[in-house]
Amino acid sequence: MITESSIKFNREKLGKTIEVGNASPHIERVLAIAQEACIDPRTADQKTTKKGFLVYPLDKKRYEQRANGNDFFITFSEEGRVKGFLMCYDRSFLQNLISEGEIGHEDGIISYLTKNTEPEDNFLYGDQIGISAENRTREAGTILMEKVFAKMKDRSMRNMYVAILHGPIRNEASINFVGRLGFENITEVTNSDGLVWGIYHADISKE
Ligand SMILES: CC(C)(COP(=O)(O)OP(=O)(O)OC[C@H]1O[C@@H](n2cnc3c(N)ncnc32)[C@H](O)[C@@H]1OP(=O)(O)O)[C@@H](O)C(=O)NCCC(=O)NCCS
């Protein structure tokens, strides 16, 4: 069934009925996709992580909390099966997570964003994206990002930031993925856990 908030695509490459909608009803699948993609970058090697990876795992309750009242946490489904998700926060949602002590590891990233953005800039922070392993490089990730760009435009939001691991290993799949969407690496930060992150920015009004 297509919900009101969903949009329907018919991309040739996918060739099936696909939907993008709010993540709230699909948290079990989000959790499964995230767990499949999660690795420990201190022990993983660059060769076995070529298809990308996630670093900071969340539990079911936290995904539920981050979907609640958040229009920027969406899923991608094909023929009724959820195959990917994109979890972002606008400035006020992120601020609430920070005040509630919910942003645990990302201190370097958050500090950069709070110091280097204007208070009136309602930017979007892209926290996690995951496509189930067998569905990667089929444009699901791009479709999710395009949906978020459309939502940003509806709200006159222009700046989006994402953080991608640079060290001890680099998430090359993700770096290529965001590069193709117009993101540029603006700086590197180190979180207190010692992991080094590239901060990437896109001004979507320039498209
Ligand atoms: C990174 C990820 C979100 C991309 O989504 P996707 O649906 O696979 O990507 P799309 O099909 O929309 O886009 C493909 C583009 O992404 C990049 N890309 C995706 N996988 C890649 C890989 N294994 N190696 C190099 N580039 C890759 C390329 O730029 C590619 O374009 P190209 O084919 O023209 O080179 C997905 O592969 C994924 O979930 N990986 C595991 C989790 C992850 O890394 N999340 C990001 C954490 S910051």
Automatic annotation (TrEMBL):
Entry protein name: N-acetyltransferase domain-containing protein
One Pfam family it belongs to: Acetyltransf_1
GO molecular function: acyltransferase activity, transferring groups other than amino-acyl groups
Residue ranges constituting the N-acetyltransferase domain according to the UniProt record: 58-183
